[in-house]
Design goal:
The chain has 328 residues and is of the alpha/beta class. Helix content is 34%, strand content 19%. The chain contains eight helices and eleven strands. It has a six-stranded mixed beta sheet with strand order 4-5-6-7-9-8, covered by helices on one side.
Length: 328
C-alpha cells in the first residue's frame, strides 16, 4: 500500500474537565485524573492512533483561573495525555476553557490559543483527509472580534475545498489542497437539535433529562449556524462533545454526527471515546466504552482482598510438632 493510500487512524475524546483549585477536591482530582490517565494510555498502547482530537472543555476552571493556574493546567494536560513521538494531539476550545461567548475576552482567547496551540479555526489535512476544527463559541454570527475572524477563516477553507474540486472557474490553477474529499468537522458544541430525546446510545442522557429542550448557543449551535456550516463545508462526518452524554444522528445528505460523552468519570459513569479510520472516499468509526466506575472499584476491592488473603496465608507462623520416642 502506498503511503498516500494508508488509512488515517484517529481517536476522539471530549470534556476531560481537569479539576481546578476552587471546585475540585484533591482526592477527587487525584482519582479522576488517574482514571483518565490509565484509560487514555491503554487506548494509545492498544490502538496506536496517529492523531488524537480533544473536543473542548479540557479544563474545568479554565474560564476563570489565574494565569499561573492556567499554566499548571497545561502542564497537567500534557503529563496525563502524553503521546508517542509519531502521534499528534490537537485540542479544540470549549466553554469551560475560555467562557461562553458573552464572557470571552481577547486575553482568555489568546491564552488558550498560545497554551494549547489551538487557533479558533484550523484545517488539518492528512493523506487527503481534511479535518476542520472550529471554536464553537465563535459561531454566534454577531460580528464580535472572535466571530468575524472565524467566519473569514471558515469561508476560506470552504473556498479551498471548492477549488480542489475544480468546480469554480475563479480559482487559480494551483489549489492549496492537493485532492478533494469531504471534510470531517470537529467542534465542541453539537449541531442544532431540540433535545437528547432522539438519542439512543448506551451512554445516552438519563431518561429524566432526555426531553429537556436545548437552548441554542448554550447546549448546541444555533439552527442558523448549523445550517450554514452544513451548506458551506458539506462534511461527511461531525464529531462534537459538550453535553456529557452520547448521541448519534443523521443530518441531510447522509451526514453523520456523533456527540461523545464526557471522558471523565466525574461527569459520566460510563465514559466513551470514538476511534476512526479514514480514507478520502470512506471512513469507519467505532465507539469504545470505558468500564463503569463501580466495576473498577469492585475489581480493586477483590484484588486487594485476594492479595491480603495470600499474604496472611504466606506469612502466618508455621508450627512443627516434635515427639520423643521412649525406648522400653
Amino acid at each position: 500500500m502506498e503511503a498516500a493510500d494508508k488509512p488515517v487512524r484517529a481517536m476522539f475524546i471530549a470534556d476531560t474537565h481537569l479539576l481546578g483549585s476552587k471546585e475540585g477536591h484533591w482526592f477527587d482530582k487525584l482519582r479522576r485524573e488517574w482514571q483518565m490517565y490509565r484509560a487514555f494510555q491503554t487506548m494509545i498502547t492498544l490502538h496506536r492512533p496517529e492523531v488524537i482530537f480533544v473536543l473542548g472543555d479540557v479544563f474545568d476552571e479554565g474560564h476563570w483561573c489565574s494565569s499561573g493556574e492556567f499554566e499548571y493546567y497545561v502542564q497537567r494536560f500534557h503529563s496525563l495525555f502524553y503521546i508517542p513521538k509519531d502521534a499528534r494531539i490537537y485540542v479544540i476550545a470549549g466553554n469551560h476553557d475560555m467562557g461562553f461567548h458573552y464572557a470571552i475576552t481577547p486575553y482568555r482567547n489568546q491564552r488558550f490559543i498560545n497554551g494549547m496551540k489551538s487557533p479558533s479555526v484550523r484545517r488539518l489535512s492528512i493523506r487527503n483527509n481534511h479535518f476542520v476544527l472550529i471554536n464553537s463559541m465563535a459561531l454566534e454570527g454577531d460580528g464580535c472580534f472572535l466571530c468575524r475572524q472565524t467566519e473569514i477563516a471558515v469561508n476560506k477553507i470552504a473556498r479551498d475545498l471548492k477549488c480542489a474540486r475544480k468546480i469554480d472557474d475563479t480559482c487559480n490553477n494551483a489549489s492549496v489542497i492537493a485532492r478533494y474529499s469531504r471534510p470531517i468537522l470537529l467542534q465542541h458544541y453539537p449541531m442544532y437539535r431540540e433535545s437528547d430525546e432522539i438519542c439512543n446510545e448506551l451512554d445516552q442522557a438519563p431518561d429524566e433529562i432526555k426531553t429537556i429542550k436545548f437552548r441554542e448557543r448554550w447546549e448546541c449551535l444555533s439552527k442558523e449556524a448549523s445550517e450554514e456550516i452544513l451548506d458551506i463545508l458539506n462534511p461527511r462526518l461531525i464529531v462534537a462533545g459538550h453535553t456529557h452524554h452520547g448521541c448519534r444522528r443523521m443530518h441531510r445528505d447522509n451526514i453523520l454526527e456523533f456527540t461523545i460523552s464526557s471522558f471523565s468519570w466525574r461527569n459520566k459513569i460510563n465514559p466513551s471515546l470514538l476511534l476512526g479510520t479514514f480514507v478520502p472516499n470512506n471512513y469507519s468509526v467505532s465507539k469504545c466504552y470505558m468500564p463503569v466506575e463501580s466495576t473498577v472499584i469492585l475489581i480493586y476491592t477483590v484484588s486487594i482482598t485476594c492479595i491480603l488473603i495470600y499474604l496472611i496465608i504466606k506469612l502466618r507462623p508455621r508450627c512443627h510438632a516434635y515427639s520423643r520416642l521412649k525406648i522400653p
